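In the current project phase, we have settled on a layout for protein records. One protein thus recorded is set out beneath this paragraph:
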Amino acid sequence: MAVLIYRSKCFDNALLITEETFNKVVKRVSDAERTIRESSPDDDMDAISSVFRRIELDCADVFPDLKIFQRGGPMYDDLVRVTKAYAFYRSGFAYIPGSHAVAATFLVNLSPFNAFVALANSLNRYLPLAFLSGDQMTVSPTSPPSN
């Protein structure tokens, strides 16, 4: 029921993300994690490893009062997986700090796949992404308000 409400009332799946797409991205994340563990230091792998560590730290601190997203909590692994998948899904492999909090909000009511779909589609719009990334030019009014 929650899935239908999010998709029909908030936004649809304009990006046409399928479970197959989600599973492919999750596999890419898993492959990258394995490569990091098995390889010698490399600039590209160090950059990805650094982003993964940042995501894991951010996810452990989101909504602490809920006590479900901290390390070892029932939803921590799902949150990390969805957030890393979104970073890999974005062109250029980019983690947007704060996207983990959006993902956590969706995960409270949705499966990891549906949370990923909601996250990707909601942040595929200029204004939500601009607020999250701190793009002041986009979120600032074009002219000062009149009194």
